[in-house]
C-alpha cells in the first residue's frame, strides 16, 4: 500500500507547513510557546507565475521549486521537514467500519479491498492511506476508519517540489483538514469551547472559494464554488490596461484610480456577498440544518476592505475575518501589524505547521 504519510500521524520534529496554491507559496513554522502554547516563528509568501499551478495541479515544477526556494530564503528557516497539503478536490475520503480485532496487516488488506469500491482508479495508480478514528457507533467491537486516496502523480509532484527545494516531505495532509484544525483551535478559545455553534468557514482564494460548515469540529457540509479574487484582478486589468502582476500588486497595496472603488470594488464585494448567501442557502437545502451561528472569512480576499460588513449585512449572520495566529506568541523579527494584515491567507499553511504538535 502506498504511504499517504498518515493523515493523523503524530510528528514532533521542527516542521514547516507548505501551502502550494494557484496564486503562490506560503510557509509557516511554529514552535512551543505563547498563551495557547504555540509561537509563530516564521511565515512568508511568494507569488507564482500564472499557469505554474492550475486547478490544484502543478503544471510547471521548475517555477514552483524556484518560488519555494525564494520563500524559504525570505523566512530564514533552517527546518527541513515539511508538511504538504493536497487540494480537497484531489483526494477521495471515505469513512468505513471494520472489525476492531484485525491486525495491522489484516486491516491494511481489508482497506485495500474496501477501497476498490470507492476509488475509480486502479490501486496501483493511487497513493492510499488510512487511519483508525475510534470505536464505531452502534457497532460493538468495530472501529471507524478514515480512508484517503489521491492519484499518485499528484502526490508525487508535490513531493518532488519539496525535495528539489531541499526539504524532506514528512506529512501529506488534505488542505480542508488543515484549515479545520485551525478553526478547532480558534473555537476552543470561545466560551464553552464553542460547543453547539454552527460555523461556516469561507476560504476565498484567487480562483476558488472553499466552504466548510462545522459543528463541534465535525464537517456538516463542504463545497467549492468558482469564485475568487482573480475576478477582481482581471477587471482591473481590463479597465486600466495593466498587467495581471501590476493589477494584483495595486489591488493589495493601493495606487489604483480614484474611480476604482465605485466602478470595480463595490460590484465585486456585492458578488462576493451573493456567493456567500448562495452557499448558505445550498447548505440549508442540502442538510437538516436551518441556521448558521458564525461566518468566518479566510484566504487572501478576506482582508479586502468592506467584505466583512457586506457579508454580515446580506446574510444577517455575525461575520469575522479570522487569523490562524490568534493567541500565539511572535518570534523575533516578526512585525505584528504585517502579520495581522496578511494572516487570513495563511490558514492552510498554519494548519499544516500545526501537525508538528498533533
Q: How is the largest sheet built, in terms of strand order?
A: 10-6-1-2-3-16
Note the total helix count: 10
- What structural class do the secondary elements suggest? alpha/beta
Topology as a string of helices (H) and strands (E): EEEEEHEEHEEHEHEEEHHHEHEEHH
Low-confidence stretches: 1-11
What general form does the structure show? globular
* Cα distance spanning the termini: 24 Å
Count all strands and give the number. 16
Question: Helix fraction?
Answer: 25-40%
Share of β-strand residues? 25-35%
Major β-sheet, in short? 6 strands, mixed
Question: What would the average pLDDT be, to the nearest integer?
Answer: 90
- Taking Cα atoms only, what radius of gyration do you get, to the nearest Å? 21 Å
Topology overview:
Elements: E1 15-20, E2 24-32, E3 38-47, E4 53-54, E5 57-58, H1 61-75, E6 81-86, E7 91-99, H2 104-118, E8 126-135, E9 142-151, H3 152-164, E10 168-174, H4 175-187, E11 198-204, E12 209-215, E13 218-225, H5 230-240, H6 244-253, H7 260-286, E14 294-298, H8 307-315, E15 319-321, E16 329-330, H9 336-342, H10 347-353
Parallel strand pairs: 1-6, 3-16, 6-10, 11-14, 14-15
Antiparallel strand pairs: 1-2, 2-3, 4-5, 7-9, 8-9, 11-12, 12-13
Helix pairs in contact: 1-3, 4-10, 5-6, 5-7, 7-8
